[in-house]
What we know:
This protein is an alpha/beta fold.
Amino acid sequence: MKPRLTHLALHVRDFEACVAFYREYCDMRVVHERPGHELGERIVWMSEPGREKEFVFVLLPGGPGRERAEGDVSHLGFAVGSRAEVDAKAEQGRAGGCLLLSPIDEGYPVGYFCCLEDPDGNIVEFSYGQPLGPGAEEHDADTIG
């Protein structure tokens, strides 16, 4: 079997706030939880409903927090079903004080997107119209690369 990406694990500074963020903004849920190595510590696996056996996001306590350098656009990307859903995520982020970038249309293959910032300082992008999610069918003849 060829290697396949199954999970991403991040150490985070404010563990409970990050779990809450990914539940509230990314519609993820905890699918596995276990104790960590330190007393009272826990580790969670989060996933989108229905994708629990495809890909999980592991949150581990004890991270230093994310300090992004100038121009660092490292991010986690989530596809949504429409431009209106991108707008709704932006409004939700604005109300929650975590909107980093208002919706913008960069054309194909970047699409229409906005960015929020999680409690640890990671950028979380919500997009529509990329070749990896809803809206891709509008560009069936186009290829990535």
